[in-house]
Amino acid sequence: MENDVILSLQDISFGYSNQTVLENVNLDIKTGEFIGIVGLNGSGKSTLLKLILGVNKPTNGKIIKNDNVTVGYVNQTTITEEGGFPATIFEVVSLGLKKKPFSHLTKNDKELVLKTLEIFNLKKLKNKSMSTLSGGQAQKVKIAKVLVSNPDIIVLDEPTSGIDAESEEMLIEMINHLHAMKKTIIFVSHNPDNLKGCDKIYKVIDKGVVSYA
Ligand SMILES: Nc1ncnc2c1ncn2[C@@H]1O[C@H](COP(=O)(O)OP(=O)(O)OP(=O)(O)O)[C@@H](O)[C@H]1O
Ligand SMILES: [Mg+2]
Fold first, then answer.
1. What pLDDT is attached to residue 85?
2. Which residues line ligand 1 (CB under 6 A)?
3. Ligand 2 centre from 46 Cα, in Å?
4. Which one of 42, 78, 150, 153 is least enclosed by Cβ atoms within 10 Å?
5. pLDDT digits (tens, 9 = 90+) for 159-193
């Protein structure tokens, strides 16, 4: 693997029971690259991300990733799956620091969580329980929880669904800021405006991944 390649998909194929979704996919992602992924509904974008994350195991080919690389993932669902979880927004986001649940947080940890909440305009909700949030607010908490741990690779699957235009713009601004800080970002979006800052855009089509203008 080349030095600056952080993640390499080599001749990957994958399918669910009787359906092949991806075939002979080759994709190298370099450290610091901001990659956009587009494609029609059902083309295999989320499936591709789950291969990158190691949730799906390829039926053929291999994925090369340094064991020390940390990956943060915001999934596609807008369902507030943490809605029934008896925790405040502050607590949920602090769980993103991957400390033991509700263990003692250092002053630095607390400041980091508060700073992240501030970025997402969630600070004033910090003591509210997840079950009281709107869908868009809960989505922002999910993203904040991932970003607070400062992962090496950030994988975002349609993170802006259910988010208002202003918050979406802010999130895109933040992603572009993370890109400027040399973070590696893989971002699935149906909105071309969200992908303007990308170094490369790939399209998932006909079970393959092609470079896309
Ligand atoms: N867990 C699963 N079990 C079986 N089939 C699945 C599963 N997840 C996805 N599929 C199928 O794999 C194909 C690709 O799905 P995937 O979710 O990767 O598409 P996508 O490009 O992310 O679509 P969307 O734009 O709607 O999010 C679809 O035909 C889908 O029905
Ligand atoms: Mg999807």
1. 63
2. 16, 21, 39, 41-47, 76
3. 4
4. 42
5. 888 788 888 888 898 889 889 989 999 999 999 89
Please state the domain extents for the chain.
1-69+152-213, 80-149
CATH architecture group of domain 1-69+152-213 = 3-Layer(aba) Sandwich (3.40)
C-alpha count within 13 angstroms, C-beta hemisphere, residue 205: 9
Question: What is the model's pTM?
Answer: 0.89
Tokens representing 53 are 């994350």
The model's pLDDT over 39-70, given as tens digits with 9 standing for 90+, comes to 999 999 999 999 999 999 999 999 998 888 99
Contact 146, 72 (CB under 8 A): yes
- Which residues line ion ligand 2, judged by CB < 5 Å? 45-46, 76
72-94 pLDDT, tens digit per residue, is: 998 876 554 555 567 899 999 99
